[in-house]
Design a protein that fits this description.
The chain is an alpha/beta fold. The chain has two domains: 84 residues, no CATH class; 205 residues, no CATH class. It has six helices and 16 strands. The protein has a 16-stranded mixed beta sheet that branches. Helix 1 packs parallel to helix 4.
């Protein structure tokens, strides 16, 4: 006669119940984590019911209860593993791991944008982002923006969507054209995101330009882009390459003497009456030709590098 051990029936019932519950969660998106946490003591009820069944169905006057220790152990392992896996699934951890396995790092182009600059536009205000912005001279009366990004994405569609989300925001208010480059925060390896981004901004020479940024920015400017007066201010790194035949004046203020760089022959002086605990403490001056085109650079932090070619 086959002997019945307490735990065997409970294991079978529990496997069926957990399978049904997990299927319901997958197909109907039922939130069962809280239910499983609340009702896990039903295991004890099942095992207790088995004990009573064995006692009342036994033929002996004083039956000895025999437990299937392995089945009971497996019951507890299955329940807590199921609760743990469902918790990871409901919080998105499993989905994030699966996405990370499928994803790869690719380079993708940021779509080009063109905006006409008519005679009514007198000034362009640029809000630079943490990424790099290359500024060049536009050969037309248009502002042109394009770029390239290094993206962590699962496929090309996702990568292109991220690139489109990081296009510049361009709008006109009166005689001023505003260009805003969006700042990116790396979202981690478990989510799609931009690792590196580089924009190219092409500007006509017949407008004033002001560049600033809410965060640390990186500007790489071709000296041919300078036309009317420019103002660059904020916290960032500015690199300018200009020709010896330029008609340009650069006045810069930075925190330290070492923040001036490049092969240009800087005239540097310490500003008088400046609090040395912060702010720009040194002034640097450069001039080519008559110095008609003027560039003022005010950096709270970072450096300015001028190279003459």
């Amino acid at each position: 006669m086959r002997k019945w051990r307490v735990g065997t029936l409970s294991l079978g019932v529990l496997m069926i119940a957990l399978g049904v519950i997990m299927l319901a969660a997958q197909f109907k998106q039922v939130a069962i984590l809280d239910t499983l946490i609340i009702w896990w003591p039903i295991i004890l009820v099942l095992i207790g019911a088995e004990i009573l069944m064995q006692v009342y169905t036994a033929e002996e006057q004083q039956p000895k209860i025999k437990y299937d220790a392995f089945s009971i152990f497996i019951i507890f392992i299955m329940v807590f593993f199921s609760i743990g896996m469902y918790a990871l699934t409901s919080t998105g951890v499993i989905e994030g791991i699966a996405w990370m396995v499928e994803s790869s790092i690719v380079s993708v182009e940021i779509p080009s944008q063109r905006t006409a600059v008519d005679e009514g536009v007198e000034k362009v205000v640029v809000s630079a982002s943490r990424g790099r912005v290359d500024v060049k001279k536009s050969s037309t009366s248009e502002v042109v923006v394009f770029g390239e990004a290094v993206v962590n994405a699962a496929n090309n569609e996702e990568a292109n969507a991220l690139a489109e989300q990081n296009m510049a925001v361009i709008r006109r208010e009166g005689n001023t054209l505003f260009i805003q480059f969006l700042s990116n925060t790396w979202s981690g390896d478990f989510k799609p995101g931009i690792r590196e981004i580089r924009h190219t901004l092409m500007l006509p020479q017949d407008v004033e330009v002001e560049v600033s940024g809410p965060n640390y920015f990186n500007l790489d400017i071709d000296g041919e882009a300078f036309g009317k007066d420019w103002l660059i201010k904020g916290d960032g790194s500015v690199s300018i390459t200009t020709a010896a035949s330029s008609d340009l004046t650069i006045d810069a203020q930075v925190r330290g003497r070492d923040n001036f760089g490049g092969n240009a022959n800087w005239e540097i002086e310490q500003r008088s009456g400046v609090n040395t605990n912060g702010g720009s403490e040194y002034e640097g001056h450069l001039k080519w030709g008559d110095g008609t085109n003027r560039v003022n650079i005010l950096l709270d932090g970072g450096e300015i590098v001028i190279n003459e070619i």
